């Protein structure tokens, strides 16, 4: 008598899908790749998640509420904008360069370019990146309203600067630049914020 089929673990399958998309990107992963990565038949994947795109979107959401939530936590939890930006950049480097794990940021690298049929995926991820940029700007605006930054400081430009750096760290990490080198750039990067601070 044949043994019972292994029970499908949806959470584990989603974690494996996240890592596959994170490492190879949306179009770099085929359905057969997902079957191999998740260890289940394509019919079960479709039954559990609906489609490859739906699985990808759910995998990104898992990333953003898990490992990828570091920026949101830093911006919300640190008492000053400077501490928040420094922590955000430092934790980005440590996440993006972990040994044995996908390199870089999933939201930055998973779908920069896709065929026309996947424009929806590109647009959806770009909205996520713009939302992160806006969250940095809002944190700096709060700092300005609280007197940490001078009134004349252009917080939009400053926020764009740090968002660009955050996204650039992902590219550098995927290109193999090591953690020590990336961590070393944080101090000079903070000089712009230091010059924007109000004199005590």
Automatic annotation (TrEMBL):
The keyword Transcription regulation appears for this protein: yes
Domain of life: Bacteria
Record's protein name: Helix-turn-helix domain containing protein
Database matches in InterPro entries: DNA-bd_HTH_TetR-type_CS, Homeodomain-like_sf, HTH_TetR, Tet_transcr_reg_TetR-rel_C_sf
PROSITE patterns in UniProt: HTH_TETR_1, HTH_TETR_2
Entry keywords, A to Z: DNA-binding, Repressor, Transcription, Transcription regulation
DNA-binding region: 30-49
Spans through the membrane: none
Annotated ranges, domain HTH tetR-type: 7-67
């Amino acid at each position: 008598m044949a043994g019972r089929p292994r029970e499908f673990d949806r959470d584990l399958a989603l974690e494996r899908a996240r890592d596959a998309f994170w490492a190879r990107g949306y179009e770099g992963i085929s359905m057969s790749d997902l079957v191999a990565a998740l260890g289940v038949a394509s019919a079960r994947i479709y039954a559990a998640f609906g489609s490859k795109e739906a699985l990808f979107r759910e995998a990104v959401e898992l990333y953003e509420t898990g490992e990828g939530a570091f920026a949101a936590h830093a911006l919300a939890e640190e008492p000053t904008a400077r501490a928040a930006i420094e922590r955000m950049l430092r934790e980005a480097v440590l996440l993006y360069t972990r040994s044995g794990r996908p390199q870089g940021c999933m939201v930055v690298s998973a779908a920069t370019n896709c065929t026309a049929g996947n424009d929806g995926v590109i647009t959806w991820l770009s909205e996520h990146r713009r939302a992160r940029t806006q969250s940095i700007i809002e944190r700096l605006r709060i700092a300005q309203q609280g007197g940490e930054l001078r009134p004349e400081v252009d917080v939009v430009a400053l926020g764009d600067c740090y968002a660009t750096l955050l996204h650039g760290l992902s590219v550098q990490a995927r290109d193999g630049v090591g953690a020590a080198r990336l961590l070393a750039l944080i101090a000079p990067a903070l000089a712009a914020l230091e010059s924007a601070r109000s004199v005590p």
